[in-house]
Amino acid sequence: MSELEALLSETERTFGLRQIAAGHAQMVVIGRSLPQPIGEVWSAVSDPARLGEYFEEPQGDFRRGGEFEVPGIASGIILRCDPPRLLTVSWIPSHGKAGELEVHLSDEDGSTRLELRYASVRKRFSLIDPESTEWAAGAGWEFFVDNLAANLEGRELHRWVSDWRSLEGAERELFEARNAEWERVWEQFEREHAPLPGPE
């Protein structure tokens, strides 16, 4: 197995449907196993200062119903916080199309199962749009999980860029390969949810 194939195999990718405040949404679901205990992972995804180590440090009122902003990226409201297992926030990126981000954690014999769910009412938000600078949600949120894992293990982080098209080398290859995996999963999801044929 090549290094790229190994990186692709770390993640479980599925699609779902979800009702959010902005309406009926499609949802990407990213599953990853992390070797750290659940308390350590929870701290990394919920503590603003820890988030700043590998993403961007959010600013705001960090309690249920509180508003927050991730400078230059998104804003939202904390909808639910049940330590150390569940964090749900509304997520309004700079393009203004509302979404919802949810992180589920579960203990697996001392390690942690992470499931990140991102739902949006925006069409085809999960896949690369060659005409847009915005990150595709599927491969983009996988990079977030990569940096979370790297931070927990003390490894080098991916660099964040505002335009995914400026990714280079191995990072660009990985982003595009992950997008191809999301396209495959999307096609399967579409087949499973296609309307039944009507009467002849």
What do these coordinates show?
- The structure is a single chain.
- By secondary structure, this protein is α+β, with helices and mostly antiparallel strands.
- 32% of the residues lie in helices and 32% in strands.
- It contains five helices and eight strands, in the order H-E-E-H-H-E-E-E-E-E-E-H-H.
- The protein has helices at residues 3-9, 38-46, 48-54, 137-153, 169-192, and strands at residues 12-20, 23-34, 59-60, 67-70, 74-82, 86-93, 99-108, 111-120.
- A hairpin with a 2-residue loop joins strand 7 and strand 8 (111-120).
- The longest helix is centred in the last third of the chain and has 24 residues, at 169-192.
- It starts with a helix and ends in an 8-residue tail after the last helix.
Secondary-structure map:
Blueprint: H1 3-9, E1 12-20, E2 23-34, H2 38-46, H3 48-54, E3 59-60, E4 67-70, E5 74-82, E6 86-93, E7 99-108, E8 111-120, H4 137-153, H5 169-192
